[in-house]
Amino acid sequence: MPENDKQGLSVVTCTAPVNIAVIKYWGKRDEDLILPINSSLSVTLHQDQLKTTTTVACSRNFQQDRIWLNGKEEDINNPRLQSCLQEIRRFSRKRRNTGDSTSDASSVSHKVHICSVNNFPTAAGLASSASGYACLVYTLSQLFGVESEQLSAVARQGSGSACRSLYGGFVQWKLGTQLDGKDSLAEQVESESYWPELRVLILVVSAEQKSVGSTSGMHTSVETSQLLKYRADVVVPSRMEEMIRVIRERDFPAFGELTMKDSNQFHAICLDTYPPIFYLNNMSHRIISLVHRYNQYYGETRVAYTFDAGPNAVIYTLQDHLPEFVQVVRHFFPPEVNGEEFVKGLTVCSADLSEELKRDINMEPTPKGIRYIISTKAAQERWTHN
Ligand code: DP6
């Protein structure tokens, strides 16, 4: 419940997590409602390492809606922000009219001041729109007393991938068939506790800021890539079924292989886009080689990579293989010795590497190719605290 002081100021603060897709969303059939051309599936990450925190205040004394992102005021007239604000206010009015609302009856007509911060540096090149819009929509819903299964449809209108950050664990976003997008919603496939051995590493590579944002990138792909149509019509429907099955069976080799193939197909579509889009850089390619050589050494998929619209790798692996793989990364990408820790987040035990493994991988080390690693895992969705 929002805080209420004598000046009629209500304040709510919430947090929301980042999610990383293993079946990628790429392409819209409706750009205004943000309706995708294919379903997607992601893993929600732990908020101790990556989260957005949003505070929304509402008061009858506020003259206009305003928003600050990481301390800097941004344009509240951004159409996606406006869609989210309008939708939540519409839901709130609807609930009030049906007598369901727990919120202060007048607050929905008051202006809001929104303040949103991430606990991870924007410069790291990690997508923040998913956690950002999920957090905005959830915080507004708490302030205005909106409880709705449609919240993910509202977050979706901020940024497609944001709808998946409203749930924890393994989450699918079903593309839906309705024109109004009411059935284009996220839902949980399994909770984070279903597969506790699954671990996640984010390898933050040395790179400039990404050149093409996902919104404009996927727009050009829809316009120009013939592969994209094949992916949406033929590949993804069966991959979604298979991904859900391998998660339910906790079959890591199958999960890892499918995750890598789907990431590769997404980047193949970026190359098939005209003009082509390059999100991966040399360091990303080296990480891909390292993962395949490591898996080849063991004759099974122990580690899997996935890349979004940027060069950073997200690695999925199992707890048992984590220490050795981190040591492999440290060996082949010797970090800068600057006093800063190389592995941030969840502790990773140390491990020894055999000479045979190093020899078999047979790669030239690339000093300082990876700036740092964020060690994390799957987790639940969000918490409210006032
Ligand atoms: C490559 O959700 O950022 O991360 O809907 O235009 O805001 P908009 O795009 P966005 O796209 C994410 C694309 C991706 C894949 C994914 O997360 O599924």
From TrEMBL:
Pathway(s) served: Steroid biosynthesis; cholesterol biosynthesis
GO-annotated biological processes: cholesterol biosynthetic process; isopentenyl diphosphate biosynthetic process, mevalonate pathway
Mvd1 C-terminal domain boundaries: 200-378
GO CC list: cytosol
Reactions catalysed according to its record: (R)-5-diphosphomevalonate + ATP = isopentenyl diphosphate + ADP + phosphate + CO2
Coiled-coil residues: none
Annotated function: Catalyzes the ATP dependent decarboxylation of (R)-5-diphosphomevalonate to form isopentenyl diphosphate (IPP). Functions in the mevalonate (MVA) pathway leading to isopentenyl diphosphate (IPP), a key precursor for the biosynthesis of isoprenoids and sterol synthesis.
The protein's name: Diphosphomevalonate decarboxylase
Native source organism of the sequence: Cyprinus carpio carpio
